[in-house]
Structures are given as structure tokens and as C-alpha cells.
Amino acid sequence: MKIITTPFSEEVIADLKVGDRVLINGYIYCGRDAVLPKICQLIQENTLEQYGIDLQGSVIFHTAVSPAGIGPTSSNKYEIENSFIPLSKAGVKMHLGKGAIGKDTIAGIANENAVFAVTPPVTALFKDNSSECELVAFPELGMEAFYRIKVKNVPAIIAAAKNESIY
What residues have CB less than 8 Å from 107, skipping those under 6 apart? Predict the structure, then answer.
């Protein structure tokens, strides 16, 4: 088990391989199909800073944030999977969710030294392993807005890295 802390360095990500089990610590961003296209638009407009968003070495967890807790959504939804490469180019080093992603996405994140990790869909686990929660952007989207949370020892398995996949 590798214990890794955000923001991730290029070296930490380069050391990960498919099948590695990790425990994630630090701040991670949360977003899913409603908000990730909006974040990609901010990247294109070069306006992330206006929202205080720093994606360098970050994690994007494919989830909504609700009072009931958080849990992964399917990462292969059109809007989510189409965000992988632009987000990776903007500094995201780990995409965290569930499900298989396409070969083009696997190759695209490999080109940016980013990885895809899967995590168990256990909402209670995340509630116990997260402390701070901050709404960062697009509050009009409610629980599907862009959030930043602080996590401790969130388990994941590297599902895609270096143009390889467990699927």
C-alpha cells in the first residue's frame, strides 16, 4: 500500500502502475458530469484563478457532495470522460471514480503523466475519511457544484497508468 499526499509531484505519479493500491491524503476536488465541462471551459478561458482553483498535482473525484456523504459515480459518462485530457493538461494528476474508461482516454492521460484510480462505492467510508468541505465554484449546481474536500487515507486502486489498464 502506497500512502500518497496531494498535491502530487510528477515523480509520485510516474512511480504508480496499474494495480497499485494507494491511500490518498490531502485536498481533492469533487465534480461530476454537471460541473466538469464548466471547469474545462474555465481552463480554456484561463480563468481558474478567479475561483481560487489550482489543479497542479490535484485529484478530481467523480462525485457529487451531499449531506448524506459522497461516493464515486461512473467515470465513463460522456461529460466526465471527455474532461480527463483537458483536466490532465491543466495539472490534474489523478482522476478518481469507478468503471472502465476508453483506450483514447487511457492514452491521453498517459501522455500527461496522469492516472485513473477506482475506489469502492462506500459512502460511509468517505464520510469517515473526510473532514473539510468547501464549495469552490458553481453553487447553482447544488450537490453537483465543484467542491474541495480534505481526505485522509481514502483507498484506491490504480486502474489506468502508462497507457495500460486493468480493464
Answer: 163
CB atoms within 10 A of CB 14: 14
The model's pTM is 0.94
For residue 130, which amino acid is it?
S
Range of the domain at 132: 2-165
- 38-63 pLDDT, tens digit per residue, is 999 999 999 999 999 999 999 999 99
Amino acid at residue number 155 = P
- SS3 of 40-72: the string is HHHHHHCCHHHHCCCCCCEEEEECCCECCECCC
The CATH number that applies at residue 146 is 3.20.130.10
How many domains does the structure of the chain reveal? 1
Residue 161 contacts by C-beta under 8 Å, 6 or more apart in sequence?
Answer: 13, 16, 17, 18, 20, 110, 115, 116
